[in-house]
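Sequence, structure tokens quoted for completeness.
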Amino acid sequence: MNNLEGRGFERELQFQASRSGGAGGQNVNKVNTKVELRFQVESSELLSEEEKALVQEKLGNRINSEGYLQVVCQTERSQLQNKELCVQRFYELLRQALTRQKKRKATKPTRSSVRRRLESKKKQSEKKASRGLRGNH
């Protein structure tokens, strides 16, 4: 799990290039610089069943109805740079999805934080109590 790049995901990735908007001048209308990376999660031979479940749970909003995890890059003017950027983002997404969150250990509030909270409550109650005195006379 530590070394995702070493597993050889490149052979399971599909790339599609198309024209993108944005900067690039006349180049924009002629050259396919936008790159879309697609990765079929369910049929991947490189992920275990547990890892597939984690990816589908955590990256569900990026997986389309056909089961493809999609990453689109169109910031650079060259197709090669966009492709490399897509691959980097793909590995970053996988890394985030497969990293386990640490369990939160409940701790008691510190003495000083309890004291600060009680002091602020006391101030607030004094402020509100003083409001009623003027209105009654």
